[in-house]
């Protein structure tokens, strides 16, 4: 890795003891606090799995697949980065073991190593450092989150690479933050520091000395406990930061700043604040709306990956953002469409959302849920597959096209109202048939969507393969469907509405990916608003 002429600073976030401690939220919260000081912050997620990206993984394996503006299928933590920093990530902000080895092996086959033996050190680690350096361009600070848990064999090359960064750039330009768990034992009524001591010991064996400990805990960390951890982990007491459970993840930056973490980082890296005096004022105001809502509303997500809420992470956050815009708390009902008792739960909701997904499991139940929302005039938002289900429901029940379906689920349907494009059928690589990333959508001015967006052309992110079949467009329009938005170059339907319904909107793209707590997405804002009106 070449010397850092730009003097960009590097913060590395690792995790210990157990997985799912919240390294992504911790990294994002640190990023938010530094952005509030006027610094240019870059974010990077290093994922240890050998998959090139999470695009082919079941949501139960790795949560949702987050799609960036440039069409990269990435880790869900990039969603946290975007929401906290209010900035768009790109393909280079997510690196996997699969990508690194693919890159190095390709170079070796092309003879670029001049007959050398290709090894983890230095070739793999150099490739990792090159990706870190790429994100560092024109940034004051790069925060790099290392996936997995210290001690996992697959993350060792990444940990070795971030160890070397300190040698390459000097200790004054590098900071290591270790996120760890301080478990509470109810039987003895005490917090235990031994797991953290072992985790830090593992890091030190690798050659990484953490500068800051972020401690997930159920109980307050008193000074004697911090003092003990500082002694055994060789970390200054003031650099041991408590990360207690909080009702909203958006409180985390405030928790860190209230403990002085931002000032510790600025001082350690010799950075100067450039803030204009407001700092986190707008963030505090937003969090206050979450903490003290004036209204409440119940909205159902009718999906099929309900056992792991991270499968719908961006959707859940976008609903929260919609609530913020209305100063309302959104009570989310998670309805598994594969269970027969969902109808009892639909009785008491004021809005229904049918999300995206792949595979035919639960499809008929999703179509029935759409029918329930349409017939009972309950505010409805369909996303991706949710829009396709809405088209199928209207085709079957209002156009009298018995057996209408998507060719994804029934290749022999007599009425393929949802189908793959003719040119896509020629593509042999399944991944090549996906519409990924940003596409423009032109809106009809007489639509609910236009009233929400207040502009004629919008840019939205996609991740899907099948489209509304234009052969059936006229029949659907005659039945009361409104095509409110389309991708004009190919006349592809992007947004549908139902004219005789107070708020029935379904979209082919994923609006949740562009929603931010400080800037809620227009469709989620209006959906929550419609649900509140229905509740009244």
Strand content: 15-25%
Gross morphology: globular
What would you call the structural class? alpha/beta
- CATH top level label of the largest domain: Alpha Beta
Which features would summarize this protein structure in a list?
single chain; 536 residues; alpha/beta; Rossmann fold; 2 domains; seven-stranded parallel sheet; 18 helices
Description:
This protein is an alpha/beta fold. It has 2 domains: 277 residues, 3-Layer(aba) Sandwich (Rossmann fold), CATH 3.40.50.300; 242 residues, Class I glutamine amidotransferase (GATase) domain (Rossmann fold, 3-Layer(aba) Sandwich), CATH 3.40.50.880. 35% of the residues lie in helices and 22% in strands. The protein contains 18 helices and 23 strands. It has a 9-stranded mixed sheet with strand order 13-12-14-15-23-22-21-18-19, with helices on both faces. A 7-stranded parallel sheet has the order 5-2-6-1-7-10-11, sandwiched between helices. A 3-stranded mixed sheet has the order 16-17-20, covered by helices on one side. Strand 10, helix 8 and strand 11 form a beta-alpha-beta unit. Helix 4 crosses helix 5 and helix 5 packs across helix 6. The protein is globular and about 75 Å long. The mean pLDDT is 92.
């Amino acid at each position: 890795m070449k010397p850092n002429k730009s003097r960009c600073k590097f913060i590395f976030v690792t995790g210990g003891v157990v997985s799912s401690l919240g390294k992504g939220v911790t990294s994002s919260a640190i990023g938010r606090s530094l952005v509030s000081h006027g610094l240019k912050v870059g974010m990077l997620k290093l994922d240890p799995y050998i998959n090139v990206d999470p695009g082919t993984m079941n949501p139960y394996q790795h949560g949702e697949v987050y799609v960036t503006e440039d069409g990269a299928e990435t880790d869900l933590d990039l969603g946290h980065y975007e929401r906290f920093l209010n900035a768009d990530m790109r393909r280079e902000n997510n690196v996997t073991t699969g990508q690194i080895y693919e890159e190095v092996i390709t170079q070796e086959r092309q003879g670029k190593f001049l007959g050398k033996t290709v090894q983890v050190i230095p070739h793999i680690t150099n490739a990792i450092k090159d990706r870190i350096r790429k994100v560092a361009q024109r940034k004051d600070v790069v925060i790099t989150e290392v996936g997995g848990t210290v001690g996992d064999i697959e993350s060792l090359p990444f940990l070795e690479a971030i160890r070397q960064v300190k040698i390459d750039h000097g200790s004054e330009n590098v900071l290591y933050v270790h996120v760890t768990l301080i478990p509470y034992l109810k039987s003895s009524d005490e917090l235990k520091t031994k797991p953290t001591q072992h985790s830090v010991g593992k890091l030190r064996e690798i050659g990484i000395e953490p500068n800051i400990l972020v401690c997930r805990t159920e109980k307050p960390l008193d000074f004697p406990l911090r003092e003990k951890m500082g002694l055994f982990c060789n970390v200054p007491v003031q650099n041991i930061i408590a990360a207690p459970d909080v009702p909203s993840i958006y409180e985390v930056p405030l928790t860190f700043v209230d403990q002085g973490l931002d000032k510790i980082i600025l001082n350690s890296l010799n950075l100067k604040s450039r803030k204009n005096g407001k700092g986190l004022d707008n963030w505090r105001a937003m969090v206050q709306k979450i903490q003290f809502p004036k209204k409440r509303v119940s909205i159902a997500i009718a999906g099929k990956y309900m056992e792991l809420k991270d499968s719908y992470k961006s959707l859940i956050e976008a609903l929260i953002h919609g609530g913020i815009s209305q100063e309302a708390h959104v009570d989310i009902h998670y309805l598994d469409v594969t269970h027969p008792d969902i109808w009892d739960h639909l009785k008491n909701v004021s809005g229904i959302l049918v999300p995206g997904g792949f595979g035919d499991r639960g499809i008929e139940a999703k179509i029935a849920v759409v029918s329930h929302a349409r017939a009972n005039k309950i505010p409805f938002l369909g996303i991706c597959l949710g829009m396709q289900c809405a088209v199928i429901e209207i085709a079957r029940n209002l156009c009298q096209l018995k057996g209408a379906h998507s060719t994804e689920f029934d290749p022999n349907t007599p009425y393929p109202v949802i189908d793959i494009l003719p040119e896509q059928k020629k593509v042999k690589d399944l991944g090549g048939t996906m519409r990924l990333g940003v596409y423009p959508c032109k809106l009809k001015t007489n639509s609910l969507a236009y009233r929400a967006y207040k502009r004629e052309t919008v840019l939205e992110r996609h991740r899907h393969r099948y489209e509304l079949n234009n052969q059936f467009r006229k029949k659907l329009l005659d039945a009361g469907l409104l095509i409110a938005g389309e991708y004009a170059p190919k006349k592809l339907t992007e947004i549908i509405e139902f004219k005789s319904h107070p708020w029935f909107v379904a979209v082919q793209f994923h609006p949740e990916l562009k929603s931010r707590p400080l800037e809620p997405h227009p469709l989620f804002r209006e959906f929550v608003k419609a649900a509140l009106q229905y509740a009244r």
